[in-house]
TrEMBL record:
This is Protein transport protein SEC23. Residues 53-91 form the Zinc finger Sec23/Sec24-type domain. The keyword Nucleotide-binding does not apply. It comes from Anaeramoeba flamelloides. It is found in: Cytoplasmic vesicle, COPII-coated vesicle membrane; Endoplasmic reticulum membrane. It is a peripheral membrane protein. Residues 431-531 form the Sec23/Sec24 beta-sandwich domain. Component of the coat protein complex II (COPII) which promotes the formation of transport vesicles from the endoplasmic reticulum (ER). The coat has two main functions, the physical deformation of the endoplasmic reticulum membrane into vesicles and the selection of cargo molecules. Its main location: membrane. Residues 550-648 form the Sec23/Sec24 helical domain. Belongs to the SEC23/SEC24 family. SEC23 subfamily. Keywords: Cytoplasm, Cytoplasmic vesicle, Endoplasmic reticulum, ER-Golgi transport, Membrane, Metal-binding, Protein transport, Transport, Zinc.
Amino acid sequence: MNFIQKEDLNGIRWSWNIFPNSTQEESRLVIPLGCLYSPKKEIPTCPELPYPPINCRSCGCILNPYCSIDFNGKTWSCPFCYQRNQFPQSYYGISEQSLPAELIEKFTTVEYLLPPPQQQQQNRIPNVPVFLFLLDLHCPQEELDAMKDAIVESFAFLPPQSKICLVTLGTALQIYDLSFTSCPKSFILRGTREYTFDKIQDLLQLRTNILDQQKGDTPTGIHKFFRPISECEFLVSEILEDIKKDPWGNKKGIRPQRCVGTGLQLAIMLMARYFGILKLNLGKIEKEEDLLKIKSIGGIGGRIITFLSGPCTKGKGQIVDREFDNPIRSHHDLLKGSAKYTKESFSFYDNLGKIANQIGISIDLFGCSFDQIGCYEMRTLISKTGGELLITDKFNSDIFKNSFLHLFKNKKQSQQQQQQEQEEEIVLETGFNGLLEVNTTAELQILGVVGNCEKFSKTGKAKINEKFSVGIGKTNRWKMNTLDPQKNYAFYFSVINDQKNPIQPKKIGLVQFKTISYDSNGKIRIRVTTSGHLFGDFASNAGMLKQSFDQETAAVLVSRLAVERTKTEKTGSVLRWLDKSLIQVCKKFANFDKTGISSFQLSPYFSYYPQFMYHLRRSHFLNIFGDSPDETTYFSHSLYKENVSNSILMFQPILQSFSMNGPPSPVLLDMGSIKKDNILLLDTFFLVLIHHGKQIKNWIKQGYHEMEEYKDFATFLELPKQEAQVIMSDRFPYPRFIECDQGSSPARFLLSRLNPSSSNNQYSEENQNSSLTDDVSFQVFMNHLKKVVCNQN
C-alpha cells in the first residue's frame, strides 16, 4: 500500500489500514488503532462546492461516496446510522451517469465554500480577521527595532480589510487609539494592578452600544482600538517608529518588571469586547456551563500575537522573582515540587486559554531570549487556542523573522498568483475559528485526540468511550481557533464488538471528519473527509494484517502518547512503558525459534519500527537532560502539530552525504558516516547543519575554492548549501542553520544525534571521532531486544 499517496488524496494516514474485527484482536495489536489527520492540507484534486452539504436527519453525518443511493425514489441511506433520507429538489436530476462530486468514489474529501452568515452582517461585526499585537518593551533596542520592522513588513501580507490593534507591555500597559490620526494617542494602565472586565470598559470608554460604534466619522468604543489595516497602516508605522525600550527596566542586579499575565488578560478582554461580549468573568472556570455563558455576537476570530523577551516578574501569571539570585525553575525543581510560582501561574494561564478558546481567538507566542520566558506555564494557553509557539535567541535573527511572516502566508502566494498583473483578493492560508467533528460507524468508538486543540461539547449520537480516554477525550468535537495546512491531529479509536460477536470480514468501518472554519474573507469553508477501511479476521490471515501496517504513522502515534504520558508520569515510567510495548510488538510480529537471537527476524513491514523507538528514546521528547522546561514545551508543541514525515524527522533526523566521487546520497545516522573527504547535511527539523570532513576543511583553509583551476570544488561546496536552503525555505518554525568542521565545537550537534557505533575505546583513524556518551548503540539495543523477546517466549 502506498500510504503517502493516500495521504495526498485525503490528508490522513492510519496506523492499521485494515481494522481488527473485535476488541480482543485490537488489544493484541499492541500499537493503537489511530490516524493522523491534517484538516487544512492542500489537496489539488479536492472539489470545491458552492452549495451547503446535505446532512443525515438522524446522526448529522454528511452525504459521501459510501452512501447507498435509490435513484428512482431520490433517497439515500446513511452508512453511519442506516437512516433513509430524501434528496432535496436540486438533486432530482442525478443518475448513475450524472453524480454530484460528493458521491463520486474518488472524492472522499470535498470542500463546501459558503458565503458569510447573515446574522453577522446584521450585527455589523465585519467578517474579517482581527490581529492584536502585544509587544514586550523590555528587550534591547536593536532587537526591539527588528521586532517592529517585522510587524510593519507583515502588513503587506494582510488582507486590507483585516483589523489590527496595538498594545505594549513592560512596567505598564499601553493601548493605542488607532482612530486618532492627529498625533499618537494611548491609554496607560498599571501592570501590577488587577482589572475586571467592567473596570476596563469604564477606563477605556468601551460602553458604547455595539450596533452604534461604527456610525459617524469617528469610531467610538472598542472600534477606536481596532481599525482596518488599509486605514491605519501609516499611523501604526509611525507609532512603532516612536516606540522605545521601557525606561524603567535598566536597574542592575534585578530583572525588569514585566507584566505579561496582566497584558494577556487585557488583550483577551479587548478581543472579547470587540466580538460583542458585554459580560466576562475572568475568575477560575470550574464547569463547562461557565464557558457556555461566554457568547460573542459575530466575527470570524483572530489572533493575539505576543512578543516576549523574558518571563513575567510581577502581577498575575508571575514566573520568577525579580532578583537574579533566584533562578527560574528547572526540570529538577519541577520534579521536587519546589517551583514557587508554577502551579498558580499555570492555573491562571490555563484559565485564560479556556476563555480565549471560547471567544474564538488564538494566542501566538514568539519568545526571543537567552533565558527562559515561561512558556512552560503558558503551554495550555497556546495549545488550547491552536496558537503557534517559537523560542529562539534574538528578534534580529532569520529564525524569528521568517517564522513570524509565515503566519501571514496567503493562498495567492502559495499558488504563485502574485505574478499575475491583475489585482486579486488576498486570502490567508489560515482558517479561523475552526471546529472539527468526528463520527464513526457503530463498530468503532472515539477515544480522543492528541494535538493543539480544546474539547468542545459533543453531539447527541456521538460514539465515544466514556470510561477511558486518550489525550482530549469524552467528546467527538474539538475547537482550534486557527488552522493552517501544516497542522495535524492524532485521533485514537477502539473497536467495541466482543470476540463472541466479531465483525464480519469485508464489512467497512467508516470515520467521517467534518471541519468548519472561516476564511479571512469571511466565507465559511467546510471540509468533509470520509475514510473507510475493511474489518479483517487477523487470526486466519496474519499476512493481511502485516501488509496494512504503516510503521511511520504508528511511530508518531506512539510518540505522541509517550509525550502525553510525561505530563502525568515520570520519564522513567514512560520509557519502561515504551520498552514493554516494543517487546510485545516484536513477540507478536517477529519470527524466531528456540535456537536464540540468530533466528530472530522481523517482518519487512515492521523492520523500521524498533529503529524509530530507539531514536525516540534518545530524542528531546524523552531525554530532557540539558533542556529547560521551556525547550521541552517547545519541542512537544511542535510534535503535536506536524504531519507524519516532519514528526519522524524530529526524533530520527535525515543525514545526507556529499562526496566528489558521486552524487549526493542518504546515509545511515551513524558515527561511521563521518568521513574526512565528505560533507554531511543533517536535518533534525529544528536544526539544519552542514558538516565538513577534515580533508574538506583543510582544502577550504588553503583557499582551493577561490582558485580558478578548482571551480569544481567551489561548486561542490555550494551543493549542500543549496539543498539546505530548499529545506529551510518553507518550514515553520524556520530552522536554525549551522555550518561547522570536523572536530569543531558546533560539531557536537551532529555527534549527539548519531548512533554511537564507535565508542571511545574503538577510536578510528578513518573518521577520527570518538563518541563520548552513555547511550548504547543501536546494535547493542537490538541485540538486547532480541534476547529479551526470545527468552520471554
